[in-house]
Queue: 3 jobs
Job 1
Amino acid sequence: MAGYFRNIFKTLNECGVRYLVVGGVAVNLYGVLRTTADLDIIVNLTEENILLLVKALEKLGYKPKVPINIKEFADPEIRNRWIEEKGMKVLGVYPSDRQLGEIDIFVTEPFDFDEAYQKRIDFDVGDGIIVPVVSLDDLIYLKKESARSQDLADIEALEILKGIQEKKK
């Protein structure tokens, strides 16, 4: 696990953010190795949780890729306007030094967050850093919704992994 991802997870956890890792990093944590340069997360879209996320991002030195006030992300009306007027699916943020570690934050919850959070798998990435990852079924669901070529390859590998896990039961 790359050091910059570990630092992101550590800071999110220290700030008390309720989040779930999805995308390529989640695929890697499940043991399907592939290259990914960004971190995709779904956060609980309550105002309180988003303000904790903003605090964590500020602590990490992250800023939005688009010219907005990051605190506006906590306002559901503004988020809905971004979705409707700009077709926004994720809010991209990057470190101010523009090094590796871009984060894409879903602007909607693609499923019931609390239910998905209950089904999450916690991965220990060392040094006491626990990473909450969507369940294998939820990850496959999200990949099917995106259906890009990389997602299709991920689905195939994740389905094989799921079959192996089910045989062990």
Job 2
Amino acid sequence: MAHILVAEDERDIRELINFTLMFAGHTVTLAANGEEALNQAKAANPKPDMIIMDVRMPRMTGYEACKRIRQIASYQDTPIVFLTAKGQDDEVNQGLEAGATAYILKPFSPDDLTKRVAEILKKAGVAG
């Protein structure tokens, strides 16, 4: 299964995502904000197969973290997915311009999250 980095500032949601993805067989690394996600992405060996992050986080937004992670050569093709309640067209476009691969909107069911993650990993050519 895949290694997934999850950045979410709300602890309860972060733990729900962690449990859901681990139950589906994935390895999960957690970050509480965009800055932590960027630092973990830089230090990861091996790098995660996918990054899921919230948009609105303290210290560094998901948009900024996504832009900076995309500047790392080894992350050019890594799926970066925003999991967020922010689903208006302009916000989705801002995320895509920052380098996001896809959006998953909150609220989500664990089954829907698992299904979407599997679809995105498959499209990226990652066994998941």
Job 3
Amino acid sequence: MAAVVEILLEHLDEIGFLWSQRADAISSPDYREQDVQELDHRIAAHLDGLLVAGDQCFEVAAPRLGEEDKSIAFAAAWCLAQLGAFERIFNQLEQCNLDAVIEAFCHCCIDSVQIPLKEIYQNADADVASAIGLILATHQKSLTPNRLLEFLGHDDPRVRERAWNTISRSPNA
């Protein structure tokens, strides 16, 4: 059993590492389309390696959502999102590495959880809600402006930065 967990952790680590390489690649003139596609294929292969484990995948990924290392937290959030396990993420948003969750959710389909995301945006504290607002705006979902105004005047610079990024991506800004 411990060997399986170690293999799953290796898959998560590799997803995080490869995603970091992918992020660098898409902003560099040194990479070609086929280079990025190769990274995408490798990421998908590691996701497949996690999916084979079934429920053990959840047990390995969920505790890593709060990792300080963004690449590990991203890999955990992205993996859970790909599995449709959004509720596991929602249940611990306040303990999550929110920057990792933002990146993961911005790179997956959120249509099935649009309503709960909008509820979190309306009701959560500013740190969490500003992260959710950025996710929704990235997916071109309309937001109510009252929270954005709150975030723009917030004491936390991360909340203000997310608000400005949300405005820049929002379809109704």
